[in-house]
Amino acid sequence: MVTPEQQESLRKIKVIITDVDGVMTDGGIILGTDGQEFKQYDVKDGLGVTMARKAGLKACIITGRKSESVTIRGEELKFDGVYQGYFNKVEAYQVMKKEFGFEDENYLHLGDDILDLPLFGIVGFSVSPADGIEQVRTEVDYVTTTPGGRGALRETVELVLEAQGKLDNIIKELTTFD
């Protein structure tokens, strides 16, 4: 359940930042014998990104790894920024902040592991998937009911849209066909 203070913080969110491995995926990485990397993404999370963008929010990825799969998924979902290879996620965040020009309180970060901890202390709202590591779950503002790779990003988007009073309109927009 979200507290009134958390609701107020969620109303200020303009940018949703997500990690990939363990958040948009279940954390598993399949490597082929030729070195090709495979990741499995949940379509519910993909629609969540679409919902966020339709509501006027920006959506970005910051990940410590570099992967062609992430590039493809980022382009497919029209993420506003895909920052790969940033072990120091605060460094990528600073680049993003210069690009978008919003205040720290306008950013939400969804992450599951220790590399996300420094960014949690800066952004306006922090979220962990249900299966994020304990050090992360105890530091964030909100823990989703769903695990990484199984709708945690979608749940986070809906949390923001609900707080901002936009969720019902976005659902109606996506499900009304003339």
Question: What's a quick, concise take on this entry?
Answer:
With 178 residues, the chain is an alpha/beta fold. The protein is built from eight helices and eight strands.
Q: How does this model look, in words?
A:
By secondary structure, the chain is α/β, with parallel strands linked by helices. It has a single domain (4-170), classed as HAD superfamily/HAD-like (Rossmann fold), CATH 3.40.50.1000. It contains 8 helices and 8 strands. β2 (30-31) and β3 form a beta hairpin. α1 crosses α7 (152-163) and α2 (43-54) runs parallel beside α7. The longest helix is centred in the first third of the chain and has 12 residues, at 43-54. The protein starts with a helix and ends with a helix.
Secondary-structure map:
Elements: H1 4-11, E1 15-18, E2 30-31, E3 37-38, H2 43-54, E4 58-63, H3 68-76, E5 81-84, H4 89-100, E6 107-110, H5 117-120, E7 125-128, H6 134-137, E8 142-143, H7 152-163, H8 167-175
Parallel strand pairs: 1-4, 1-6, 4-5, 6-7, 7-8
Antiparallel strand pairs: 2-3
Helix pairs in contact: 1-7, 2-7
